[in-house]
Specification:
The protein is of the alpha/beta class and 226 residues long. The protein contains 9 helices and 8 strands. Strand 5 and strand 6 form a beta hairpin.
Length: 226
């Protein structure tokens, strides 16, 4: 059966990296609303122009726009065997809408990546993205890279990764997105992961937690497999 997973966590928690790894390992698409919106911004579409103003302030794009984008994406054939959602839902209203979308699909598995705020600020202050394809790069302990490992494009700092905007984004997360944890916490398929560890350990912990969540979810629906 399909494996449908949500990756939660604040900006800088590593959701994108972990979602990409998990999706690749399971052979299912990683669906990033951030990537979809940035593509629209890059192409200068009507939605992209509206979204850019909001994203540059560090705020969240309106629910109606994002829900419509996600609904359309989940109806594509490649998502029929499952998916990993990265960046959606961000609000309880979006989560309620997603439950409606998922009404006739296997239960969602929810992974919440937890990282201390001081570490998030440090990570985001050094984060670079490819101006061409949007892949994220981190300088680590050595010199900062200047070109994208995926396509060779130039690396730049995102306009919403300056110190002031980063702290604002974390404030928005606490206000609007963190309540999602409480919305999902009581579900048998919810799991919390320590994201302050090395990336490979986080990957291993997520894989183990998902396997355990699949078992709990199956029991919760009377033995029907996810």
């Amino acid at each position: 059966m399909a494996l449908n997973l949500i990756m939660l966590g604040p900006p800088g928690a590593g959701k994108g990296t972990q979602a990409e790894r998990f999706a690749r390992a399971r052979g299912i698409p990683r669906i990033s609303t951030g990537d979809i919106l940035r593509e629209a911004v890059h192409e200068g579409t009507e939605v992209g122009v509206r979204a850019k103003v909001v994203m540059d302030r560090g705020d969240l794009v309106g629910d109606d726009v994002v829900i419509g984008i996600v609904r359309e994406r989940l109806n594509r054939p490649d998502a029929s065997d499952g998916f990993v959602l990265d960046g959606f839902p961000r609000t309880v209203a979006q989560a309620v809408a997603l439950d409606d979308i998922m009404a006739v699909r296997p239960p969602l598995i929810v992974v919440d990546i937890v990282v201390p705020e001081s570490e998030l600020v440090r990570r985001l202050s050094f984060r670079l993205i490819c101006a061409d394809c949007g892949v994220t790069a981190h300088p680590g302990n050595g010199a900062a890279p200047v070109s994208c490992r995926k396509c060779g494009g130039p690396l730049i700092q995102r306009t919403d990764d300056t110190d002031a905007v980063v702290r604002g984004r974390l404030g928005v997360y606490r206000r609007d997105t963190k309540p999602l944890v409480e919305y999902y916490r009581s579900r048998p398929t919810f799991c919390s992961i320590d994201g302050a560890q090395a990336a490979d350990q986080v990957t291993a912990d997520i894989a183990a937690a998902v396997e355990a969540a699949i078992g709990r979810g199956a029991r919760a629906v009377g033995g029907r497999a996810l």
